[in-house]
């Protein structure tokens, strides 16, 4: 108890300088306590915010914060992770935004304990300096009596007391500030550790642009794209099927109408074909008749040829005999008068026979000429009928082709083209087939005309020969 009283007496007995320095140290201590407490509470509140943040995703454990600085840190960290930054300086990122929310200059705060010690030492040195200086002054003034000496030493002793009390307050302030600052640093470290753990081990794995993340995003993109593509293809396929069904129904109706129209024109074609068959049948009858006439002409020609050959042979024999008789006549003209008369009679008989043969030849020629005229008339009629039938068939084909062309919109260009080509081929084929018999008929007619002309020339030559023989 007496020690405490002595300390209080010593504290009270220090000089003004000591109180001033102690007051400054107390102010620094008060400021340090306030700032360190503020710093500690700030980090404590941030750590509580991290601990008690609302979890928005139970799988990734991502949290939602209300503190603006934490929100900014999280957003910046997400951006860095999504850009592919592998080594994010989390501590620097936290310090950048936390210092804005906690306006405490930690560097100045860390210097406050040193300031307290420095002020305490400064007071100690100043007090010791003043005490030594005062003691020297008392000693130099001389010691007259003990009472005067003790009275003069009061001020130097007070200065010595100030020197120690400033150091004591400086050390105590430094210890208190160091304790508070360390407590705030522990709170800061706890906040940093917990928040860095949340950022590095929770958010980074969720937002880091790594190979796994890229692969997952690629899978998500492919999955979404394939689902969208499947939906689009399903919609397009459905639209295509609907349009196809609509077109098929429309084309079915069009083809039904076209089939009806085609059926009508098929009936017209059937009528044309029946007409063509009738024309062919009509053409067959004249051809058969012409064939019969040709056969009859062949028979008549054979008979004429036989008669002509017989007459010519007889004429040749008679001429030979006549030649022999004339030769004998030249030898024995005078002696064979009777033979000449007999020969004249015989020649007269031959003349009569020759006249009869000539008349028979004339009748045969007239018959042949009549047959030829009749055959020519029949051939002309047959050719005319054939020509009319062919023209009728050609007109029917042209009418049918015209009708088919009118059906172009109903049955389509393809069917029209095929039918037109087939009908043209049929027309050309039938025309070619008809041209061949017509050419044969023309050739037969020309041959018959040539034979008639030859027979006429033969008859003419025979007449001239008979006249010449008769005159001789």
TrEMBL record:
Taxonomy, superkingdom: Bacteria
Protein's name in the database: MotA/TolQ/ExbB proton channel domain-containing protein
Entry keyword set: Membrane, Transmembrane, Transmembrane helix
Transmembrane portions of the chain: 15-34, 108-132, 162-181
């Amino acid at each position: 108890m007496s020690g405490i009283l002595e300390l209080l007496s010593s504290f009270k007995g220090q000089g003004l300088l000591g109180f001033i320095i102690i007051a400054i140290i107390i102010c620094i201590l008060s400021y340090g306590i306030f700032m360190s407490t503020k710093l500690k509470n700030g980090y404590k509140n941030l750590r509580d915010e991290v601990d008690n943040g609302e979890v928005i995703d139970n799988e990734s454990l991502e949290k939602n914060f209300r503190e603006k600085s934490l929100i900014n840190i999280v957003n910046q960290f997400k951006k860095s992770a999504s850009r592919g930054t592998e080594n994010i300086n989390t501590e620097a990122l936290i310090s950048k935004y936390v210092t804005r929310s906690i306006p405490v200059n930690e560097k100045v705060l860390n210097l406050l304990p040193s300031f307290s010690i420095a002020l305490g030492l400064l007071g100690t040195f100043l007090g010791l300096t003043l005490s030594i200086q005062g003691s020297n002054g008392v000693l130099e003034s001389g010691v007259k009596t003990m009472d005067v000496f003790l009275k003069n030493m009061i001020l130097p002793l007070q200065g010595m007391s100030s020197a120690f009390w400033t150091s004591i307050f400086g050390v105590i302030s430094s210890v208190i500030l160091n304790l508070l600052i360390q407590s705030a640093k522990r709170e800061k470290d706890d906040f940093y550790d917990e928040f860095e753990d949340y950022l590095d081990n929770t958010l980074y794995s969720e937002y880091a642009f790594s190979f796994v993340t890229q692969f997952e995003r690629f899978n998500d993109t492919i999955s979404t794209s394939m689902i969208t593509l499947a939906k689009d293809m399903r919609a397009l396929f459905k639209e295509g099927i609907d349009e196809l069904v609509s077109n098929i129904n429309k084309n079915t109706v069009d083809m039904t109408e076209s089939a009806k129209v085609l059926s009508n024109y098929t009936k017209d074609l059937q009528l044309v074909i029946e007409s063509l068959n009738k024309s062919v049948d009509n053409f067959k009858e004249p051809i058969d008749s012409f064939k019969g006439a040709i056969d009859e002409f062949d028979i008549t020609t054979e008979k004429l040829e036989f008669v002509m050959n017989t007459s010519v042979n007889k004429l040749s024999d008679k001429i030979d005999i006549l030649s022999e008789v004339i030769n004998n006549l030249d030898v024995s003209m005078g002696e064979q008068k009777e033979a000449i008369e007999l020969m004249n009679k015989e020649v007269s008989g031959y003349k009569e026979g020759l006249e009869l043969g000539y008349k028979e030849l004339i009748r045969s020629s007239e018959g042949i000429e009549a047959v030829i005229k009749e055959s020519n008339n029949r051939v002309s009629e047959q050719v005319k009928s054939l020509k009319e039938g062919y023209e009728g068939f050609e007109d029917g084909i042209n009418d049918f082709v015209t009708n088919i062309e009118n059906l172009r919109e109903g049955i389509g260009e393809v069917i029209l083209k095929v039918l037109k080509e087939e009908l043209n081929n049929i027309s050309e084929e039938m025309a070619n087939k008809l041209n061949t018999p017509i050419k044969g008929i023309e050739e037969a007619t020309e041959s018959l005309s040539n034979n008639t002309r030859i027979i006429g020339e033969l008859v003419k030559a025979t007449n001239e020969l008979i006249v010449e023989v008769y005159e001789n």
